[in-house]
């Protein structure tokens, strides 16, 4: 009987510590109470198309190409073409409907410094949920670059210590979703003065928030229809990161996310770091080394399959990173399993760990803050049976 009662009490405690998520309301506006709620992101352009289009596209001379990471997954990224020196003035194309084509309706003349472009974006895949949003493209006062933001934010209430507080979710990385831990922002009117203080009431999503004697972690789904502040239970363990390879690392930065949705940042190797107890996966990893020419190399990896690492109270967990690092290549043909003369062959290199937990997203050579830095790429050669080079191409990673 006592065991049954204890089980009932524990279930009741668990239910109480996990509040029911609330739905926030989306507002298609740039600002709240005079404060901007959009976050502009710089666009990294390439000289060649980043992804093959589904239909031919005649790009103007000097055009640059990019993929905007919008929506639920990387394969929903949108092709963007920017021609700042086009005849008649700057032109911009974006695959607004995601069909892999750039038609005349997706061509925009940018006569001023800013332009608004409507897009349709998939934010959930099972089942598919599509939303209509507005992208804001902005040119700098000097130069030919371009940056973008997504108009809109979400408002609602969060429960802390049993009391409701006004809150705002802002899309911090301009990907049309509200659930990106460490990138999106949450504002909470903690002192209930009807205003939001940028220093004391604004937090990255997933960072701990103290209210009274408790610490909360705010989490949200991509649509901001399920938002909650979950109380973190006390207790710590330790995580020790180590590299599987004998690599001389000068700098490391790893982001880990717990099952509670809390973001933990670690910047050391072979040293135990205290963290709240829970199950963690590596969301991102940046490593800096120095090449034989003295130039710094920056490797950026992102989490892929969310392999979990348990950290119990009072225990230490060792996480070995980059074990079995290998390059895999995916080849796609227009036909079933062979390419005919004149057809396009798609080659996609991927550097990934043996357990699939981390995949290389970029490799940059040069100063992290320098405009002269270059991105390393894979060289792809098509050879004849005799070893003669028939075609040569390059590809980035990720």
What keywords describe this structure?
1 helix, 4% helix, 5-stranded antiparallel β-sheet, mainly beta, 3 domains
Describe it.
This protein is mainly β and 398 residues long. It has three domains: 39-151, no CATH class; 153-232, no CATH class; 234-397, no CATH class. It is 4% helix and 47% strand. The chain contains one helix and 32 strands. It has one helix spanning 2-17, and strands spanning 25-27, 31-32, 35-36, 41-42, 64-68, 78-83, 91-94, 107-109, 114-125, 128-138, 147-150, 153-160, 163-170, 185-188, 202-204, 209-211, 214-220, 227-231, 236-243, 251-258, 263-266, 272-276, 278-290, 296-303, 309-311, 316-321, 326-333, 345-352, 358-365, 374-375, 378-383, 389-395. The longest helix has 16 residues, at 2-17. The N and C termini lie far apart (56 Å).
Helix content: under 10%
Structural class: mainly beta
Count of DSSP-assigned helices: 1
Query: How many separate domains?
Result: 3
Distance between the termini: 56 Å
């Amino acid at each position: 009987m006592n065991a049954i009662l204890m089980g009932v009490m524990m279930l009741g405690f668990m239910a109480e510590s996990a509040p029911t998520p609330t739905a926030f309301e989306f507002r298609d506006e740039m600002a709240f109470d005079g404060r901007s709620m959009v976050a502009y992101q710089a666009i990294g352009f390439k000289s060649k198309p980043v992804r093959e289009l589904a239909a031919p596209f005649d790009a103007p001379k000097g055009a640059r190409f990019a993929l905007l990471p919008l929506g639920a997954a990387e394969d929903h990224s949108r092709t963007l073409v920017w021609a700042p020196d086009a005849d008649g003035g700057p032109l911009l194309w974006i695959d607004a409907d995601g069909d892999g084509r750039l038609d005349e309706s997706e061509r925009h003349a940018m006569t001023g410094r800013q332009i608004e472009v409507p897009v349709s974006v998939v934010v959930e895949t099972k089942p598919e949920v599509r939303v209509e949003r507005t992208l804001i493209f902005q040119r700098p006062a000097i130069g030919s670059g371009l940056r973008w933001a997504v108009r809109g934010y979400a408002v609602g209430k969060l429960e802390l210590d049993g009391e409701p507080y006004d809150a705002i979710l802002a899309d911090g990385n301009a990907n049309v979703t509200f659930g990106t831990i460490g990138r999106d922002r949450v504002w909470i009117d903690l002192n209930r003065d009807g205003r939001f203080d940028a220093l004391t009431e604004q937090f990255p999503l997933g960072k701990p928030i103290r209210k009274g004697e408790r610490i909360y972690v705010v989490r949200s789904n991509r649509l901001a229809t399920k938002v909650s502040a979950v109380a973190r239970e006390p207790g710590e363990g330790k995580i020790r990161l180590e590299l599987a390879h004998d690599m001389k690392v000068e700098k490391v930065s790893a982001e880990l996310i717990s099952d509670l949705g809390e973001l933990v940042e670690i910047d050391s190797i072979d040293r135990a770091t205290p963290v709240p107890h829970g199950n963690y996966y590596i969301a991102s990893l940046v490593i800096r080394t120095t090449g034989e020419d003295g130039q710094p190399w920056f490797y950026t990896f992102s989490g892929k399959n969310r392999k979990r690492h348990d950290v119990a109270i009072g225990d230490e967990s060792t996480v070995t990173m980059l074990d079995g690092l290998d390059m895999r290549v995916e080849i796609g043909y227009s036909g079933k399993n062979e390419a005919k003369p004149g057809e396009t062959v798609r080659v996609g290199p991927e550097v990934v760990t043996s357990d699939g937990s981390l995949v290389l997203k970029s490799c940059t050579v040069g100063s992290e803050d320098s405009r002269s830095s270059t991105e390393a790429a894979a060289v792809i050669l098509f050879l004849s049976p005799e070893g003669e080079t028939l075609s040569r191409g390059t590809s980035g990673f990720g």
